[in-house]
């Protein structure tokens, strides 16, 4: 994992390559909200659903709870 921020849509496309960028981002957001442990952990890292990027620590949490794409 790199030490830079990653666009939510770019990460979402890794999980859902068959979907459009916007739909993939919405699906990933839904997965995050459907995993209470992940959502709680992300909120402790200043997760903001309105932001367009994930911090490296947030990506690591997503990989931990959802698995790597």
Task: Kindly describe this structure.
By secondary structure, the chain is mostly helical. The chain has one domain. It contains four helices and two strands; from the N terminus they run E-H-H-H-E-H. A two-stranded antiparallel ribbon has the order 1-2. The chain is globular. The mean pLDDT is 95.
Keywords:
single chain; mainly alpha; two-stranded antiparallel ribbon; 4 helices; 6% strand
Short description:
With 69 residues, this protein is mainly alpha-helical. Helices cover 59% and strands 6% of the residues. It has helices spanning 8-15, 21-34, 36-43, 56-66; strands spanning 6-7, 53-54.
Task: Set down the secondary structure blueprint.
Layout: E1 6-7, H1 8-15, H2 21-34, H3 36-43, E2 53-54, H4 56-66
Antiparallel strand pairs: 1-2
Helix pairs in contact: 1-2, 3-4
What are the secondary-structure elements, in order, as H or E?
A: EHHHEH
Helix content: 55-70%
User: What general outline do the C-alpha atoms trace?
Assistant: globular
* Strand residues, percent: 5-15%
Helix count from the secondary structure assignment: 4
Structural classification:
mainly alpha
Rounded mean pLDDT score: 95
Number of strands: 2
Distance between the termini: 12 Å
Number of domains: 1
What's the main sheet like? 2 strands, antiparallel
| Contiguous uncertain segments of 5+ residues | none
Strand order across the biggest sheet? 1-2
Radius of gyration, in Å, reads: 11 Å
């Amino acid at each position: 994992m790199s030490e830079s921020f990653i666009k939510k849509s770019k990460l979402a496309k890794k999980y859902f390559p068959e979907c459009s960028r916007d739909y993939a981002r919405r699906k990933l957001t839904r997965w995050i909200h459907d995993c209470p442990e992940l959502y709680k952990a992300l909120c402790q890292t200043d997760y903001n659903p309105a932001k367009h990027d994930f911090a490296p620590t947030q990506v690591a949490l997503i990989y931990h709870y959802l698995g790597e794409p």
